[in-house]
Amino acid sequence: MIETQDSIAITVPNSHDENDNKVLNVAPKSNVTDSYYEDEKSVLLPIKELVLVFLALLLAVFLAGLDQMIIATCLPNIVSEFNSLDQITWIGTAYLLTSTTSQPISGKVSDIFGRKPTFLVALGTFIIASVLCGAAQNMIMLIVFRGLSGLGAGAIINLLMIIMSDVTSQRDRGKYQGIIGGVWGISSIVGPLAGGLFSDHLSWRWAFFINLPIGLITIIIVIFFLHLPRPTGSLGEKLKRIDYLGSCLIFTTVVCLLLPTNWGGDTYPWNSPQIITLYIASFIFLLILIYVETKVASEPIIPAQIFKVRTAIATFIFNLLFGMVFYSMVFYTPLYFQVMKGVSATESGLLILPLILGLVIFSAVAGLITTYTGRVREIIWIGSLISVAGAVLISIFFDISSTTGQQIGYLLLIGCGFGLVAQTTLLSLQSCVEIEYLATVTAMYNFSRIIGGIFGVAILGAIFNNVLSEGLSTYSQLSPGTFNLERARREPLYLWQLTDLDVRQNIMQIYVNALQAAYRLNIPHYDLKKTITQQNEKQ
């Protein structure tokens, strides 16, 4: 790190290779913003416009986060109305496929057509799709429109981070991104509650209609107050610049990768021909994508230049691992509460509020610290260490005998660690590349986290299911006829229907053993994240 009396350097994990990373000198303190914009050619908005634009971006991130979480508590009512339980997983799968794919593509499209037009198209797509979801007359229509909604939502998440980077200085960016992370966390809390309220008192359709008024307010603010330079060239010239082949290959690769990951161990066995074939196909399409992006495309969606920066590579891997740990924790911890306390899925989701609150609060804290100190690397290290401590405690002490205070404390601890690294890793990444690659690396940052989350949930799910099945099968042989083996495997709340308290306690312990085995996989992920950062610093 370079530091003088007149300037404060934004710390980058590796700043010693002249062909690799760069250290952005942000200062003097009295003129931080002006200095940054003179160097980076960003767009400085008047304070009133910046406040309004930031409000619009917060509304957009709240919409995207709400849309992801609100559907969970609406599913029972949707299934009851359409009588299509066998198709329920496709509601989430369709959304996941399109939202994941749209993130890397939207970054490059915004470089070609401009941030504002691309963001407005994404918002418009999302709003229209939400209204269509609310008006769906059958499950097929809902699945199709959820896919369209995911296309807009994925682009929104990516573009709001890019726009925020365009209109704020390097030093102030951490503060704003921390607040954005906090709003995302709040939407994760509000989503399930709102979905339950709409389903119980109005209709599940209002879970989608609610996006219309909020989305329209966001669009109006963006149209009138977000002023960004638009790329030159005619519409025809811009259309010719799009990497159509690369876009199709990204979509195909993601589909062939995500489908078997979601189906494995549930719809099909992991060693089934369907799963193996799709994984092989994803690898083949990935190789073709790499060739097209490096040898064929004139303006690739994923330029090879960004992979010449070691800090960028380290951050993508770090974020991939972060996604694996974070999403697996959010996915499987509610299951622990369902088994231990016999609560519903909605209630169990509320019981992980300490994790979300830790994430919200310390995401904002990390942003403020970065704004006023310029430190990034140290925050990432501290956040990783705190997360390791939380993961260890949860993997050991989240059992039958743990108290409510312990559960809250462990979840709050790991949430604090998540919050410290959630946004600071993006700041580190953005500071190590030239401004022309800012949109691309931001898109890849979001993309890597989602891919990591998908694999984390799948891998931990495989471990959990294997340990659970083995434990229940063994116990069934030792105590034949005392419980329904198949129901115990598929229905966590089934054990609370058992009248024999000893049998209930033993099945509960088997579930805890399976969850702890899955949680322990997160610990080496954190160690690997620290190692990646450490080795990158030494290079």
TrEMBL record:
Q: Name one Pfam family in it.
A: MFS_1
> Would you say which domain of life the source belongs to?
Eukaryota
Residue ranges crossing the lipid bilayer per the database entry: 50-75, 118-137, 143-164, 176-198, 204-228, 275-292, 313-337, 349-372, 379-398, 410-429, 450-468
* Assigned keywords, A-Z: Membrane, Transmembrane, Transmembrane helix, Transport
One Gene Ontology cellular component term attached to this UniProt record is: endomembrane system
Annotated signal sequence is none
* Membrane topology listed for this record: Multi-pass membrane protein
The main location class comes to membrane
GO MF:
transmembrane transporter activity
Subcellular location, record wording? Endomembrane system
Q: Which family does it belong to?
A: Belongs to the major facilitator superfamily.
Protein name listed in UniProt: MFS-type drug efflux transporter P55
Species assigned in the record: Cetraspora pellucida
